[in-house]
Amino acid sequence: MSQSAPHPQPQDQGATTPSQPAGASEPSGSATHGEATTHGSSAGHGDSTAHGGSTEPRPSGAAPGELVPAASRNLQPRPQPQRPWTSQDYVWWNTAQVLTAVRAGFKPNPVSPVVDPIRPTHSGEVILGSCDGEILAFKRGDNNNYQPLRGFFLAGGAAGLALMAAFFGGQAVVNSRRKRRAERDAVEKWRHLANARLSVSTHGIYLGTPDGVMFIGYQQIRECQVTGVGEVMLAATNEQGNVRLKLRGQWAELVMVIWAALFLPEHPQLVGRSWLPGDWLLHARAYNREVDTSNWP
Description:
The protein is of the alpha+beta class. The protein has helices at 87-103, 157-185, 252-263, 268-271, 280-286, and strands at 48-51, 54-57, 127-139, 189-201, 204-209, 212-217, 221-228, 231-238, 241-249. The strands form two sheets. It has a seven-stranded antiparallel β-sheet with strand order 6-5-4-3-9-8-7, covered by helices on one side. Strand 8 and strand 9 (241-249) form a beta hairpin. 23% of the residues are buried.
């Protein structure tokens, strides 16, 4: 039975879909071995149709004039777009393409229109995308050293008493504000650490700050999860110690997707596809941007 060629994956500017393995080719609609034609015959034997003196085999179950049985077509109408296609959709679509490529064992191509000129750390490493980012650390604030001001004022008479009351009243307001600020700063939470350039590669991430460029390899990451749109939390370790960071940037989800595909394919967010909005694959299909998820966990 001849088969129709598979529907090609859509392309987007700055991104490519996984390439065919070497030597692979798409099936054609031409006659293959076993599709014999008979000249001069005007009738087939139940599994062929006549076309101008020749017969071509017809798949089992196909009605006269059909090349593919209706029951095997499995065609679904394309859904109508429910919302605009945004730049964030572009990021998700390219991230999904990288996941498909990595799972297939292919080396993905850059997906970002802008890639910083970073010298790769590993042979064959590809910088996939770069963007402005922010690094956050889980820590206390800088203003947690509350020390009440100890003023001394001595005055006599009614005027002196009024002046003294005003002074200490002002001091109380200042002390109260500083105390509240110190109490807030004493609480550990995710706090801004530095602005950075985030570059995601096939082997790890590069964080460029005014102090230099830091590389974190995927093999050094022990934990990583998406905590919001364009935001991931990761914990990494090396011979110098441990670090727990939160990264914000356009390509943040790409970090988790590549790391999980390489080192933790059973990651709940990868298996459950919760790094994407619930209806996103349908949304992409509405814009003729189907994603091949056949090899996803």
